[in-house]
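Q: I have 156 residues here and want to know how they pack in 3D. Can you give me a structure?
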Amino acid sequence: MAVNLCLEEHEEEILIEYRQFTLVKIVDVDPQIQAEGGRSSWIECKDERLYFKSAAPDHYAAVRLQHWNGEPPVNRDFRWEEFDEFRIMSANDTLSIWTVTMGPGGLQIALEPGWYHMRALSTGRKAISRKMRDHDLTQGFPRSVERYLLQIWAAE
């Protein structure tokens, strides 16, 4: 049995603005994500972007982006509150995480254009909602309460 390997991995705190961040240059997505009222309430595809919807406004979330040579094992480091798997089409040689108003962040991976499987997971959603109710924004935005894991591997 072959063991799949993580080819590339990057993690960064991303500024969540307007309750979201994006993955850019996605030209097509499985219909169940793309369709209005699709299976996912926290992921939306429009304008060649995947929008990942946060549970709270204006904070920093930890985002880990991974590229695998095959289907990765399910990550059990956290109790995931959201979990979706779907296929994406990238026509670009790089996938990048962007904030809504400030553009590209440092998170990106090099890919050949084509179809990929994506597994998207999120945790800390309930915790950031609670924290934001009582948080004093003069102390700055909360950091890394909410976490995301985005795993990508080639589709056959």
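Q: Anything worth noting?
A: The helical segments are 31-34, 125-134. The first strand starts at residue 6 and ends at 16.
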